[in-house]
Amino acid sequence: MKFALALTTLIIFTGSLMAARPILCCDYSGGTVTILSAAGEIEWQVEAKQPQDCWQLPSGNILFAYRGGAKEVTREKKVVWEYVASEKVECHGCQPLPNGNVLVIECGSSRIIEVDRAGKVAKEIKLVTKDSVKLHNQFRGTRKTSDGHYLVCFKGESKIVELDANGKVLREVPVTGDPHEVVQLANQNLLITCGDGHQVVEVDPAGKTVWQLSENDLPAHPLRLMAGCHRLPDGNTIFANYLGHGHLGEQAQFIEVTPDKKVVWAFEDKGRFKTINQIMALDDSGDVTKGEVRR
Fold first, then answer.
1. How many domains does the chain have?
2. Which of 16, 84, 154, 212 has the fewest Cβ atoms within 10 Å of its own Cβ atom?
């Protein structure tokens, strides 16, 4: 095992090669969206109120969702696009679409919207959730697939729902925990992070669990609230291990794991970051607007 230290940053490597990656991440409690070098240095950072989702676009601009909407910011920190939600609405997910529009998921209004470059709603899909679910707990990571379907994390109802292009429910996948992200993989399986269920599961189109990462599968890295993730082209996955709910500053904040559950490297910086909840590996060369990046 090898260690790299920079200020308060601890990057833990396993095996013979140092293989850390440049990362874009959201710190929900810290209120920042940050680009980190492979050495853990802050290369770019903006403030945001409770950011939840983030993307690097082909232009190099950064798109992210925050509590009250979503915005696109240049590397010079100029806001070039923004959607501001209505009062008493929370936005906990966004996605760049091939036509330049941006998908946003709204708690409170209970809807998926696609917003055009003028900031106007070009499409709306209404969602139905239980009245007993608090506004903050309604939805998390939501993705539009290449076939035009929508995958929605119904956080407070412990399920993933797939909708067609018009909002018709096609299937529901029950989840142990409160799902925070769902990723459709190249083989059509779904990779699901289960929030305070302290696990990650991969299910096939029939709903069968074909891979699972459980709370204590990684020595020295117990799974806390499993939030964002990024499936890499080599088959490894980076998981954001949200350390709120009583675990602040206790351990690594995100971890890269092989398919056979070996830790490649882990990042911890309790001085500059609090609760990292979303990540994107910036050395994945896929085009995010075409669905070539699995997150």
1. 1
2. 16
